[in-house]
Amino acid sequence: MSVVERERWSLEVDKAVDLVKANSHEGIVPSQYSKKLNDSVLQLVLSTIELVKVLGKDGSEDIITKTLDTFRSLLSVVNLNANNSTYSVIASAFHLFNYLHIFSQMDDFLSSAQHLIKEDTTRSMYCMYHYYAGMTMLIKNKPSDALIHLTEAINYIPADSPNYRKTLIPLIVLHLRKGEYPPQQLLSTHHLEEEFTNLILSVERGDVVLYENEIRKHEAFFIHHGLFLLVESLKLIVYRNLFDLVQKSLNTNKILYSAFQNALSVFGKTCSETELEFIVANMVYKGLMKCQIYHQFKAFVLPPSNAFSYFEDK
Hints:
By secondary structure, this protein is an all-alpha fold. The protein folds into three domains: 1-101, no CATH class; 117-181; 191-313, Arc Repressor Mutant, subunit A (Orthogonal Bundle), CATH 1.10.10. The chain has 16 helices and three strands. It has helices at 3-23, 31-59, 61-81, 83-100, 106-113, 123-139, 143-154, 162-176, 184-189, 193-205, 208-217, 219-224, 228-232, 234-250, 257-266, 273-285, and strands at 254-256, 292-294, 299-301. It has a three-stranded antiparallel sheet. Residues 216-300 form the PCI domain. InterPro entries: Csn12-like, PCI_dom, WH-like_DNA-bd_sf.
C-alpha cells in the first residue's frame, strides 16, 4: 500500500461527499451514494493503517493527521446531509482510533451517533459501531456503558461469526463483575474453555490462588483483548464471594479476622491482619461489602442482611 493509493482514496472520499451533498434530502441520501461514501471511507482507513504498519507511527504522523482531519470534516457532513451514513463513518473512525490508540477523539464521534437507530444503517455497520463504542467505554473506565454497547452489538451478530466470539470475550468479564456466570456450553461453542473455565470457577468459589494463577497464565490473552485491568478488578469479586460464604456458614454478622484468614488458607492463601483490613476497606469503598472494622477486637461487624453486593458500575 503506497502513499499514492491512500491519496487516491482520500480523493474518492471527497467525491463521495460532494455526491452526498448534492443528493441528500432531509438528512437521507440515496443508498448508492451512501454506499460509495461508506466504502471510500473504509478504504481510506485501511490504507492509512497499512501505511502506519510500513512507516511506523512516528514516520506516518502527517498521514495520520490528514486522515483525522478528514474524519472531523466528514462528521459535520454526514450529520447534516446523510444520517444513514453516520454509523458507518463513525465505525470506520473507531477502527482507526483503536488501531492507533487515539482515544481523545472518541467522544465527539460517540455523541454524534446517540440519536440514530439501527434502521439508519446496515446490520454489520450497526454492530461494528457498538462494538467499538463498547471497547472505547472500557478504555475510558465506563464498564456500564461498555456493557450496554457490547450487548447491543452481540444481539445482532450471527452466533457463528468470528465477531461474535470477539464481542463475547469482554462481555463475559463484564458479567462476572456482576456475579453472572456464563454456561459452560457457551464457552465450549466459542472455544473459550481454556481461558475462562478455571477463571470463572475461581470467582464463583472465592479461590484467590486459582484466580491469581489463571490471570498470570492468560495474561497475554487478556492484554491482547484490552481486558487485563478489567480482569484484575475481578479479584475483589473473588474475595467478596469467599467472605460471603464465610458469613453464611457462620450465620452471624460478627466475623473475626481469623475466620476470613482461615477461609483464605483453605485455598493456600496467607493473609496478614493488615492485608485483610486493607482488602475489606477496599471492598467497602468499592461498594462490594458493608461492614465496620474493629481493629482493637480484630473483628468485622456486618449488617444482618445484604452485606455483600456486586459492582453496580454506575
